[in-house]
Specification:
The chain has twelve helices and 14 strands. Helix 3 runs parallel beside helix 6. The chain has about 350 residues and is an alpha/beta fold. Helices cover about 35% and strands about 25% of the residues. Bound molecules: iron/sulfur cluster (SF4) and magnesium ion. GO terms for molecular function: ATP binding.
């Protein structure tokens, strides 16, 4: 059947004083029920913009979005605001890096969790409050019965992050978009929250899009991975494909930056030299070519002049001119299993 979430040729452009920024430039992916897709890439690669556009949360002023996004067969792009709001309360929800943007300082944490539940299910105030207590307990807030009437500023940063997750999950969403949900947290809380998301997914079959730049997190929670660079997908595959046998030089570079402790492969630690290109004036050819250590392996000047297309074989694919066999030989030589 159709994938649960389907994104086709998504393009997001911002009009700026300096010209048009192509923040997302023709992105396509599918997400099946109960699976977790990791979207990885450096900041500015279009990860967050993609998700805001999928959810209809981008600022409409000066932003042009095109393509197709369907959730369970329903078209999302261009859907009326009211319908999107309803879907966001119930079927799909999101967790951001910064809980302060998701929680209002003016209402108690419990009320903010109970309200959408009441609205969505028609539950009584009393039942919705119980549900808020239950959710706070599930995300690991101690003494939820007592803390439910606290205001966000009475919570620690880690507790606020959990409360935001409780809010995102209160209606048992079928799609959860988590945008660097644990980046601001210490390692222990981060691990607890990742476990919590995995548990909830097992219990409810939620599909998750997990945006992160941490490949250790990807290895821990994701089934599939999409690597973004300069607003495009440069490589996609299962988590095993990407972590064990990356085929795109950018993925290879990202892998080199995993802390050794968590590394699923034994790779030298070295950041990718250079920085992501300007999306106002992207380089011609392969957007990665100014930073790519492999461009000399490609005959002629193709890397600097011809844009590589994402070639998919089933769910696996990468956008690179480098010959597949040559690439595998180079990577095999440089990446050895631990
Ligand atoms: Fe590097 Fe060329 Fe492949 Fe781009 S197309 S990633 S520049 S080898
Ligand atoms: Mg971001």
């Amino acid at each position: 059947g159709d994938p649960f979430l389907s994104v086709r040729d998504l393009r997001v452009r911002f009009a700026t004083e300096d010209g048009e920024v192509r923040a997302v430039d023709g992105l396509s992916f599918d997400l099946e029920r109960g699976r977790t897709l990791g979207i990885v890439g450096e900041s500015g690669s279009g990860k967050s913009v993609t998700n805001l556009a999928v959810l209809g949360l981008h600022d409409p002023r000066g932003t042009t979005v095109s393509g197709r996004v369907t959730l369970d067969g329903q078209e999302l792009l261009g859907a009326p605001r009211k319908r999107l709001e309803k879907l966001r309360g119930a079927k799909m929800s999101m967790i951001f890096q910064d809980s302060l943007t998701a929680l209002s300082p003016y209402y108690t944490v419990g009320r903010q969790i109970a309200e959408p539940y009441r609205k969505h299910t028609g539950a009584s105030r009393h039942r919705a409050r119980q549900r808020a207590v239950e959710m706070l307990g599930r995300v690991g807030i101690p003494q939820p019965q007592r803390r439910v009437d606290d205001f966000p500023h009475q919570f620690s940063g880690g507790m606020r992050q959990r409360a935001m997750i409780a809010l995102a999950l209160v209606c048992d969403p079928q799609l959860l978009i988590a945008d660097e949900p644990t980046t601001a947290l210490d390692v222990t809380v981060q691990a607890q929250i990742l476990d919590l998301l995995k548990d909830l997914q097992r219990q409810t079959g939620t599909s998750i899009v997990f945006v992160t730049h941490d490949l250790g997190v990807v290895a821990d929670v994701c089934d599939d991975v999409l690597v973004m660079y300069a607003g495009r997908c440069v490589e996609t595959g299962t988590v095993r494909d990407i972590l064990k046998t990356p085929e795109h030089p950018y993925s290879w570079g990202l892998l080199s930056s995993i802390p050794r402790l968590k590394a699923p492969v034994d790779v030298p630690l070295r950041p990718i030299p250079g920085s992501p290109p300007s999306l106002l004036d992207p380089p011609p050819g392969c957007p990665f070519h100014p930073r790519c250590a492999f461009r000399d392996e490609v005959a002629g000047d193709r890397c600097a002049t011809e844009r590589p297309q994402l070639l998919l074989t089933g769910a696996r694919g990468s956008a690179c001119h480098l010959d597949g066999d040559r690439k595998r030989a180079i990577f095999a030589d440089r990446i050895r299993p631990a």
